Amino acid sequence: MNIIEVVNLSKNFKTKKGFITAVKDVSFNVKRGELFGFLGPNGAGKTTTINILCTLLAPTSGRAALNSYDIVSNPNEVRQSIGLVFQDPSLDERLTARENLEFHAMLYNVPKSLRNDRIKYVLKMVELYERKDDMVNTFSGGMKRRLEIARGLLHYPKVLFLDEPTLGLDPQTRSHIWEYIHQLRKKEDITIFLTTHYMAEAENCDRVAIIDYGEIIAIDSPDNLKKQIGGDVVSLVAEEKAMAKKTIEKEYSVSVMEDDGKLYFEVKEGETFLPKFIKKADFKILSISLRRPTLEDVFLKLTGRHIREEAAEADTALKIHARRLRK
Amino acid sequence: MGPDEMNRNLMGIYTIWLRDVRRFWRDKPRIIGATIQPALFLFLLGTGLGKGIIGAFGKDLQGDYLSFIYPGIIGMSILFTSIFSAISIIWDREIGFLKEVMVAPISRWAVAVGKAFGGSTVSVFQGCLMLIFAPFVNVHINLIMVATLIPLIFLIAFSITSLGIVAAARMRSMQGFQVIMNFLVLPMFFLSGAMFPITNLPKWMDIFIAINPLTYGVDALRGVILGMNNYPIIMDVGLVAGFGIVMIAVAMVIFGKGE
Questions:
Q1: Nearest CA to A163 among A190, A192, A185, A196?
Q2: Is A202 exposed, middle or buried (0-12, 13-18, 19+ CB in 10 A)?
Q3: Whole-angstrom distance, CA of residue B178 vs CA of residue B168
Q4: What are phi and psi of A112, to 5 degrees?
Q5: ipTM computed for the complex
Q6: Residues B120 and B255: beta-carbon distance below 8 Å
Q7: Cβ of B30 under 8 Å from any chain A Cβ?
Q8: Which residues of chain A make contact with B11, given a CB cutoff of 8 A?
Q9: Which residues is A263 bridged to in the sheet?
Q10: Rounded to 10 degrees, what is the CA torsion of B122, B91, B99, A207?
């Protein structure tokens, strides 16, 4: 059963220079109970799509239904069905954690008899119960995000939207947030729709839609997406890039991609390929590395670009430095 | 609109009202500040103008100037408190909290109404707090007066808060606050008859005074407190209420259109 159905959705924004199409004819479905991810660079249209689905923005054309309610004609029913954690904080910092939740529970019509128990339950879940009577402005960034997740769950939503849930958080807090998300899936009958530009986070999803310039360019499970890549990924820096590229392409009949000064290509059984390759290379290799394909490679293959520098950092960690390697 | 939806909206209005009142009550420095400021106008500017300037020209007004401006200063307190409450929408938008309200399953017009009631309630409290200064300006306040003043203050505050909501509805940053202060709040205060009688003024000023809703608010306050009014109080109340209804309707439409 599909909890979200999107058909030919588009959104144009009027600017001084004319129209900008933020979302271009997007269609997809999200199954009930799924952990669904939108992966793409900043400005790809992820947040715009979420804002349309949660009734904050009206679509220019196309239609979408959530929990079988149309987002345009039944906005209140849609809003009652969803929990939202925005990219930017949206708490009242001058109220306590409990007051923020109370406010939400009242707006979302959680019956008074259930309210206190429910608030206690969600606060315990994100381990903030002890801080319930503290002002939110005394909370750290991670605590605020946890409180927002708790708030998003308060009214028993069918779908929880998490727009870049870990943006701006340190790695430790980030993995902490993910623990809650996984826990949540076990405990509640809920569909999670998240956007991210972190590859590693997208790997956690059941299905990922890769979105670029407002269009969905691929949609599948992370494993299936990575199967598009024909094996392992070799990335290298060579002194004479153009020459190296041409040689590799001719010699091994692979397509070599260039990005950020590095050359990338795919090979089968990389471990045995690499020593032979280095020995045989008649150009100067400054550094070389080998890894399993990631969603980043999928994105690179589909668009010819990296999503952003985070991925490059992860790459560095795995890199086998092969300086001064000569033929 | 079904009964269920109406109930939700009423609950939404109540929730938004409750938040504003709660935040106001918790913010003691704001309450003190909002009491001190009109007191400064009343006692420092009032005494200075009364004794220093008016005293030099005409002996007959001298002693009465403080009591004359006293209802005007209450009007000023209502004006500032109402506008500040309305302006908090810009702040809510800046800290992201407005989004939380806008995606709630209540009609968006209810957000404007909740905000208007919140600002009005806070203003009634702040306006009534001004009554403690009555003995210092030789004004006698009795219970009947207070019973009349509370709904009157509420009405004035509701109109002005609604105006403030309309002004703040589309503003994206606190920079807009200065614009509202200079082009709305201060002219409204100066041209309301709060500090000087509005008879015998130049023609161009008369026009602004006539279209200023606060003029009628101050006139009604002065009528109730001192028995000195230029227009019939029923007309004052009618004009303030009419203005308020138009403003809240506009605010509801703007909010209904979404962000």
A1: A196
A2: buried
A3: 12
A4: -55, -35
A5: 0.86
A6: no
A7: no
A8: 106-107, 109
A9: A236, A258
A10: -150
Say which of A77, A92, A109 has its CB closest to residue B11. Answer: A109
Contact A81, A67 (CB under 8 A): yes
How far B15 CA lies from chain A's nearest CA (Å)? 6
Question: Within a 10 A sphere around the Cβ of A32, how many other Cβ atoms?
Answer: 14
- A306-322 pLDDT, tens digit each: 776 444 444 333 333 33
* Cβ–Cβ gap A56/B103 under 8 Å: yes
Q: How far apart are CA B197 and CA B204, in angstroms?
A: 15
Express the helix, strand and coil content of chain B in percent, nearest 5 each.
80, 0, 20
CB contact under 8 A, B15 and A109: no
Tokens 């997809």 locate to: A28
Query: pLDDT digit string (tens) for B103-139?
Result: 899 999 999 999 999 999 999 999 999 999 999 998 9
Is residue B99 within 8 A of residue A56, CB to CB? The reply is yes
- Three-class secondary structure of residue A251 per DSSP: helix
How far are the Cα atoms of A25, A40, A122, A194, A228 from residue A299, in angstroms, in the given order? 20, 8, 36, 18, 11
d(CA A66, CA A77): 9
